[in-house]
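Appendix B, record 7
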Amino acid sequence: MTQPSRGFHIGGTPYPAAKLAGGLYLVATPIGNLGDITLRALQTLAGADLIACEDTRVSRKLLEHYGIATPTTAYHDHNATAARPGLLKRIADGGSVALISDAGTPAISDPGFKLVREAREAGLPVIALPGASSLLTALVASGLPTDRFLFEGFLPAKATQRRSRITELSRIPASLVLFEGGSRIASTLSDLADVLGDREAAICRELTKLHEEVRRESLPVLAQHYAGDAETRGEFVIVVAPPQAAGVPQADDVDTLIRAALARVSVKDAVGEIVAATGLPRRDIYQRALELAKERDDGAP
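Structure tokens (predicted):
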């Protein structure tokens, strides 16, 4: 029986695609605008034996738009452990599997990295195709320093753990890039402002889409904006400027960190957090924490 020809179309014009050699292909897909896909990505998706998708329903829109008929299978957080052995066996038997996420580059904050790791450990070919990435798009659109940055992904959901992690990040001499969902954007910005103070930041929403928004202000101003009735639908990328100086923190900065920590944890735990974040002597931080705790208690009604 003759196999259907592999290929894709752009604007009604058909293009053939050769069958791929066996291996795992990491294919970046658009983060919003369907035009942000490379010719190589289309050739790979059309030439693969199977496409592993984070959500087959989301991927179907892209595949149908370009007339790609390659079979798909789900590979996501909830089925990854069970699905991974089958994908690896298929590749080991000479098959070609293209891995895509709902948007952007796969294996970033999703279970794709485990598939890549196990494929490499098994000596299987892994081919990564460059392409769209929301974290890089947001970083370069923010106007904040790009020479050094840390991608943190999603902060912890619980407020205490989230503030503790922000404190740990506060001394890193680099721009911070974070992911956040609309349901937590207000609380996350509030915690960032409380711990990091008056740093510049940018909120990037609906990147590459019709209603793309990049809002750049200080963290307190952004926190106030999203505490109101601002639009919170969609996924957000937060870019936070690095500390003004990477040297020894100023006394006022240390006091700000201590006060923020004391507002949620004990003196002992606050001291541990600040010492870890700043590298300053524990004795000095402990003494200052006692002083600030006393000032707070004396000023309480």
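Remarks on this record: Residues 251-299 form one domain. The mean pLDDT is 91.
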